[in-house]
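Supplementary Text 2. Reproducibility record for the structural model of the 434-residue chain.

All settings were left at their defaults, and a single model was retained for analysis rather than an ensemble. We include the record here because the model underlies the residue-level annotations in Supplementary Table 4.
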Amino acid sequence: MFILLIALQSILLAGGNLFYSTAQDIDRLNQFIQAQGSLDAATKTFSEARNLIKDGEWAKAEQSFSRFIADYPQDKDIAAATYWLAFALKQQNRFQDAEKTLAQLIEKYPGSSWVTDARALRIEIAPRLTNNGGTGVIREGVKDPEEEIRLAALQSLFEAKPERGVAMAADILKPGSGESRLMKEGAIALLIDCEIKPAINLLIDTVRNETDYELRKKAVRALGIHDDESVLDPLKSLVNQSTDKEIARIAIQALAEHQGQRAQSMLVEIARSNADLELRAAAIQGLGDHEDESAVNELFKLYSSDKDETIRKEIISALGEINLPSAQLRLFEIARSADVVKLRHMAIQALGEHEGERAVDNLIQLYDSEKDEGTKEEILDALGESNEKKALRKLIDVARKDPSLKLRKKALASIGESDDPEAVKFLEELLKKN
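Retained model, structure tokens:
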């Protein structure tokens, strides 16, 4: 049960695969071994097999656990060894043998604490069995009184027969179903990885009809993962019609996950609208995730037309996230000509986060034409963040020749943080000269 609970926590936190990972299995095995205080021969054999599991030596682990079972059939840990034998078989894609071993464990040791884990692992491998034996295992699992087992069975059903998995998820998510939060969260997580149209439609229905606030937020986030454009209009409606700012913000983030032109147009519309300032800012951030020329153009148009300083700051930040020459050019223009010093400095910082010689050339050009000492300091900071040789050489040039002592000291501070041999050599020569 311990393994299965770890898996459920993982899926609900990260939307990942329902079943536990090999690393989590190994953690469980390590904890099991550490709980044994004995150094007898049986424990040593088990420990050797454990190390083989840890090292991913599945065939050798199979042999070692088989030897343990043969040599110590009455040992108190025989059920655990049988489980790990099945696990080693599964890792070798020997699903029929693993199924047979798990069935034996359940039959021979019905009172063992390992039975629940064995049932879960049996359900996991059921879709991979070559005969129809797995169907019955899944069918039994979805009716199991333990929710963890039901979720494991639902996962296998999604894998074996996605349409039936979605139908069962619909029953779980139906308003008034009486299902627990755990079951509903598990159903939503499984729908995320299911690409068939009914799964997407079910998520849309859940967004519209779910009364549980946390579940609804999960469903909205899930729509951002699906590439299907049918989710875009429902997400846009949530932004425009929802009275809950948090739901609207999550819907904007979900829209930003879609890279198509339609999604981008919706984000632009939200950014230009009279919506709440925070929602407009979220849409602008979303545009910053779109690495294309049209996003750069739309952001700069918005910067030119909107005089709100908060919105302009968000646009500068978004342009800083887009690593394209056109984004660098727009930042250069803002850094050179913005009528608010804070905006100029922010554009310089964003320009410094861009990689490549083009960004360094822009910063050097700004420095050479700038009159304000405070702004020059910002440019030197940005140059200090660059790994380009040209940036270091400009800093060295400033440290040698700039008439401002303050700027020379600023350049030296940046040079001192570099481990480039040229920087070290310059500092050594400067110390000798002084």
